[in-house]
Amino acid sequence: MQNAYILTGSLKSPTMIELDESLSLAMQKVRVIIEPIQSIGKKQSLLSTLNKIQAKQEKRKFVSPLKEEIDSYIAKLRNDWN
Q1: Nearest-5° angle of CA 15, CA 20, CA 25?
Q2: What percentage of the chain reaches a pLDDT higher than 70?
Q3: How far apart are alpha carbons 33 and 31 in whole angstroms?
Q4: pTM for the whole structure
Q5: 50/48 Cα distance (integer angstroms)
């Protein structure tokens, strides 16, 4: 197999693909493998994402560890190094 190129693009019709960048290849037959990717236009804001995470944590009744518990855990790990 010669060089393989991985590019992104958009389906313009059932038989037409528009690439996001050009290729410096001679006009020839090529093999195309289609892998759908998440649409970039559907990104959510950070605040929206954090709100969804918080809602899921509340739904499963997640309780964050206290600062003292985290500090104790880290101290124990550090003591194990010695």
Answers
A1: 80
A2: 94
A3: 7
A4: 0.41
A5: 6
